[in-house]
Write a structure and sequence with these properties.
Blueprint lengths: L1 H19 L7 E3 L12 H6 L8 E5 L8 E3 L1 H6 L7 E2 L6 E5 L6 E4 L10 E4 L19 H28 L1
Parallel strand pairs: 1-2
Antiparallel strand pairs: 2-5, 3-4, 3-6, 6-7
Helix pairs in contact: 1-4
């Protein structure tokens, strides 16, 4: 009985962990894929084959002696003008990361002359999903009660049921 119960408890514990873990959907996208952030890459085509979501990360990999990563507005993107950047992400290591944490379009260029050859990236974020409809307000229901019910009671019931089931099998 000891080994079966231990196995049932372990399975129930891991099932509870899986239920309680939040969904992780953010991705790290290497700009340009295996080519990285360099000349002779069609970033318009590359971006067209991607779906950019809020919370994703752009990972710019490039030769720091040849290029940089500058965020600009749409007008400066179209004219390859880096004089008034929104942000300069260049750290000097050639490995720069940008979190897509705003919902508007983003524009990136290399200010070292390569932009005129097409080294620029327009990122259009996929629309955010609408939030779920709010349930009608329940009287005398605190947020602590909701948290306890959703994050503790349900996993506890699943765990107890799994243990109970393993004990009934032995009887």
């Amino acid at each position: 009985m000891g080994r079966s119960t231990t196995t049932a408890v372990a399975i129930a514990f891991f099932a509870t962990l899986v239920i309680m873990l939040p969904e992780v959907s953010a991705r790290r996208l290497i700009v340009g894929g295996s080519m990285g952030w360099t000349t002779n890459v069609n970033y318009t085509l590359w971006a067209g084959n991607q779906t950019f979501n809020f919370g994703d990360w752009l990972f710019f990999v490039y030769d720091r002696n040849q290029n940089d990563v500058i965020e600009v507005n749409k007008t400066n993107y179209e004219t390859c003008n880096a004089e008034h950047p929104v942000h300069n992400y260049t750290t000097g290591a050639g490995r720069d990361v940008v979190e897509l944490n705003v919902t508007h379009d983003r524009y990136f260029i290399s200010s070292k002359g390569s932009c005129y050859g097409g080294m620029k990236l327009h990122v259009h974020l996929a629309p955010l999903s609408p939030p779920p409809r709010a349930a009608p307000a329940k009287s005398h229901s605190s947020s602590l009660t909701v948290v306890l019910r959703s994050q503790l009671v349900v996993p506890a019931v699943v765990t107890i049921a799994a243990i109970w089931d393993s004990l009934l099998v032995r009887v």
